[in-house]
Specification:
mainly alpha, Four Helix Bundle (Hemerythrin (Met), subunit A), 64% helix
């Protein structure tokens, strides 16, 4: 199962060469399909290679990336079967998906955290192309569900008849809150009533495995009561699923689907942690590490040409800086322009930290241009820090 802690790169290293080759062959097949009078056969080759990639990703436990590859696989399969037109738009989307998988793996191999949500925008495009609007980013959200909440000391356990009665009362309270919230989404009384009901459910089920879901759900309704989550359709559906889960519990089925648990944790991760319980839930499943920084979407173009271009720009900027440090004051405006252009091109990497470094450097240059004589020996090397940021 994918999780946010430091990943053992051994298994990834073993499969990466095979995966890279399969991705390259799949991309070649899509290029051939674009020029073929009957593209379906070439797309079938691309899909076969993508099958190989998906299997390897699944073996090493990259669940989110596996889900992404599966959606792309199904898109190509629909074109092979004639359900979708293998037009230029679909082929371009296929190549973008293959490039994103390869780039994501390269970043993991260089020590990046496994954050499949960085693929969410492209994943939504793929699902929309398949005719599946409204794809949830939670499809790519895979916290480590083997983790469990802190132990609760149960002073006394209700006998089964009393337990059932208590759960029915709590479900009725939950449904009153849910109905009130659906009627008046801006009124916090409904979410608060649901939150109180869920807390009671968690206490009643404290000695069962089902407790984990309801313990996490308390944080969900904390956020909903505070107005930190939008009452959109996915959230309304989730609340309905929790009601259905409680109905199953009343019928004697305490099993909780992983997908339901992931949906709850996904919404908890999206909201700010304003209560101690929210912070406990986020810490238990390391949710903060799974939410990517804004602007960190995985590039969907092959990165090798981009990296080569960025390195070339960095080398040119370094030469300009050296010229300025050697006494050529006129080189400073040119260097500032080079850094500004470099920051703009670097956005395609999906690495906000690198862009922030360049923007910060640009601010330093604006300060320096006011009086170039402020330069001292100790300031002559700041641009060199940029080199370590590129893979």
């Amino acid at each position: 199962m994918t999780h946010a802690t430091e990943r053992d790169l051994g298994p990834l290293t073993w499969i990466k060469g095979e995966v890279d080759n399969a991705l390259a062959r799949a991309a070649e097949a899509l290029d051939e399909a674009a020029a073929a009078t009957d593209p379906a056969s070439r797309m079938q080759f691309a899909q076969a290679h993508l099958h190989q990639v998906r299997g390897a990703l699944s073996i090493v436990g990259l669940d989110g990336l596996t889900q992404f590859a599966d959606a792309l696989d199904q898109l190509l399969g629909a074109a092979v079967r004639g359900e979708l037109d293998a037009d230029a738009r679909l082929l371009t989307l296929g190549r973008r998906g293959l490039a994103a998988i390869g780039n994501y793996l390269d970043e993991l191999a260089h020590g990046a955290i496994d954050q499949p949500l960085r693929l969410a925008a492209l994943y939504a495009e793929i699902q929309t192309a398949r005719g599946r609007d409204g794809a949830s980013p939670a499809d790519l959200f895979f916290p480590d569900l083997s983790r469990r909440p802190p132990r609760r000391r149960v002073s006394s356990e209700l006998p089964e008849p009393a337990r059932q009665t208590r759960l029915r009362e709590l479900r009725a309270r939950f449904e009153r809150g849910l109905l009130g919230w659906l009627r008046k989404p801006g009124d916090s009384s409904g979410p608060r009533l649901m939150r109180d009901a869920v807390e009671g459910i968690e206490q009643t089920l404290a000695s069962t495995p089902a407790r984990t879901l309801w313990w996490a759900s308390i944080a969900l309704f904390d956020a909903l009561a505070a107005g930190d989550l939008s009452p959109d359709l996915p959230l309304r559906k989730l609340c309905g699923q929790l009601d259905a889960q409680l109905r199953r519990t009343l019928s004697g089925n305490d099993a909780v689907a992983d997908r339901l648990m992931r949906e709850v944790l996904y919404h908890v991760a999206l909201a700010p942690a304003s209560t101690a319980h929210q912070r406990n839930v986020r810490e238990t499943w390391q949710l903060d590490a799974l939410i990517p920084e804004p602007g960190s979407a995985v590039s969907d173009v092959p990165l090798a040409p981009l990296l080569q271009d960025l390195r070339s720009r960095l080398n040119a900027a370094k030469d300009t800086w050296d010229e300025f440090c050697s006494g050529g004051a006129s080189a400073l405006p040119h260097f500032e322009t080079q850094i500004r252009e470099l920051a703009e091109h670097a956005k395609q990497l999906g690495r906000p930290a690198f862009v922030r470094l360049l923007v910060g450097l640009e601010g330093f240059l604006q300060w320096l241009r006011k009086d170039p004589l402020q330069l001292r020996d100790r300031w002559k090397s700041p641009p060199r820090y940029c080199w370590a940021m590129l893979p």
